[in-house]
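Need a sequence for this fold. Nothing fancy.
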């Protein structure tokens, strides 16, 4: 059980770090770049990837390039979403991204669409709509429509981005590429893209941002590593891992967002959180 607890904790801790970045004068783009230095190093040391396999088999490269571009981009979108919409809604939008791989399973991978799965899709769509709903705020310094549009766009970016990344990883796995090697290749390419972007902008390097990035990489890798370990420990009960991970992140994220950062959730968003948890229960097989 400790593997699941650590994975959930690392996932929420990533959102917390992104939340406090601005107030601590941390440049998120620099932190994201150094995150891949730490994550790639830990992947190399702990998971035993075989990079030479990619030299002999070039078929995964288009997918790895797509992942290398998407990983830093979606990470940056997630950071902005946490700042704009808060930890609660950003984490729920990320977890609801499982809807896209589910649709891909029906349309791309030939999985049968049962009544239970279709019901789960419908509930998840309702949850997404409730989570994205924003009341007008006439007291805001900027027009409510503009602020609401930015928030909705960022949450949709989190939802679509993480869902697309999951589909790409599933496609790579289907082609027979080993997970550790694929993960290392994605980290390396994402790091190259991130640092290339920073060098092109002639970024003024910030030591605090670098250190925060290494911590972010530790948490990001910890989330993945302990998640994989949980699947190994509970190899005969993957439903437990899937359900506990998603519901655990939503629940802990809600507690941290509301308790620590005093994030306000309107009643429609609250219904959305409840529907999200219900959708996760429905979508994962018993």
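Here you go.
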């Amino acid at each position: 059980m400790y593997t699941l607890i650590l994975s959930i904790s690392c996932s929420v801790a990533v959102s917390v770090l992104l939340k406090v970045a601005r107030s601590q004068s941390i440049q998120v783009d620099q932190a994201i770049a150094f995150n891949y230095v730490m994550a790639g190093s830990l992947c190399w040391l702990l998971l035993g990837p075989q990079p030479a396999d990619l030299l002999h088999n070039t078929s995964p490269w288009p997918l790895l390039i797509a992942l290398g571009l998407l990983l830093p981009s979606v990470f940056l979108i997630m950071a902005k979403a946490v700042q704009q919409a808060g930890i609660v809604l950003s984490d729920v939008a990320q977890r609801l991204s499982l809807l896209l791989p589910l649709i891909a399973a029906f349309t791309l991978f030939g999985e049968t669409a049962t009544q239970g799965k279709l019901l789960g899709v419908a509930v998840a769509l309702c949850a997404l709509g409730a989570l994205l709903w924003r009341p007008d705020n006439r007291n805001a310094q900027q027009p409510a429509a503009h602020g609401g549009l930015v928030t909705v766009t960022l949450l949709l970016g989190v939802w679509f981005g993480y869902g697309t990344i999951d589909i790409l990883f599933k496609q790579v796995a289907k082609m027979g590429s080993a997970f550790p090697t694929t993960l290392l290749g994605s980290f390396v390419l994402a790091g190259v893209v991130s640092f290339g972007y920073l060098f092109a902008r002639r970024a003024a390097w910030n030591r605090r941002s670098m250190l925060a990035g290494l911590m972010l990489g530790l948490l990001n890798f910890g989330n993945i590593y302990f998640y994989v370990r949980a699947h190994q420990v509970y190899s005969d009960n993957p439903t437990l891992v899937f359900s506990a991970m998603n519901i655990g992140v939503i629940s802990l994220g809600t507690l941290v967002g509301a308790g620590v950062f005093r994030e306000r959730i309107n009643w429609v968003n609250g219904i959305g959180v409840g529907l999200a948890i219900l959708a996760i229960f429905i979508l994962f097989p018993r």
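For context: The two ends are 19 Å apart (CA to CA).
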